[in-house]
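Tokens in:
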């Protein structure tokens, strides 16, 4: 009788012990911190850097990437307002030319205002001066950081006769994390364009 009672007690201990262990495991399991996985982005493949020369009736020349397409604002538009389109990346570099006729200060102020209107979305705006005394090309580049619609803007002038303004836009929802590689890639193209930029002084008649 004593042996039977002992066996019953052992079975009871094993039964209740199993429940205690299971309860401890469940409590510890529920207390684990779940760390969400970071959001991934699609891999973006970029073309090789190859450039061709832009040389038209406009009073300037420069090199632009082979994967860019020149687009006039209007067909047969004689003015030097046009875009360089990067269709595979929904990007567009807007370029607009003005003759300087006692209006240089106003044109520069306008470029400043247009760049800084992105302050609301931008994390920061960096200004980099450009000086090329040999080609008489002077200007300022605005590198706009953050979720702004435009990531790069600039103006170039010879301080006497010519002025050109540029602005790079992407036709997509701004997302700095996913766009950083794209912006950096095309920022290099804008930089190369400025480095190869020259005025064509032999042209006397310029359409505004």
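Residues out:
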């Amino acid at each position: 009788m004593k042996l039977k009672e002992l066996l019953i007690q052992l079975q009871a201990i094993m039964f209740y012990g199993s429940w205690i262990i299971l309860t401890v495991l469940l409590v510890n399991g529920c207390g684990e911190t779940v760390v969400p996985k970071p959001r991934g982005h699609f891999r973006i493949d970029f073309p090789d850097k190859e450039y061709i020369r832009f040389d038209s009736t406009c009073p300037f020349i420069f090199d632009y990437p082979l994967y860019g397409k020149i687009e006039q604002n209007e067909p047969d538009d004689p003015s030097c307002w046009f875009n360089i389109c990067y269709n595979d990346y929904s990007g567009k570099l807007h370029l607009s030319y003005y003759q300087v006729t006692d209006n240089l200060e106003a044109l520069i102020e306008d470029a400043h205002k247009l760049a800084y209107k992105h302050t609301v979305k931008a994390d920061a705006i960096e200004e980099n001066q450009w000086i090329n005394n040999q080609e008489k090309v002077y200007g300022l580049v605005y590198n706009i950081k953050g979720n702004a619609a435009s990531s790069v803007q600039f103006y170039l002038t010879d301080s006497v006769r010519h002025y050109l303004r540029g602005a790079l836009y992407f036709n997509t929802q701004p997302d700095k994390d996913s766009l950083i590689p794209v912006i950096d890639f095309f920022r290099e193209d804008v930089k190369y364009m400025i480095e190869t930029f020259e005025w064509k002084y032999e042209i006397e008649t310029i359409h505004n």
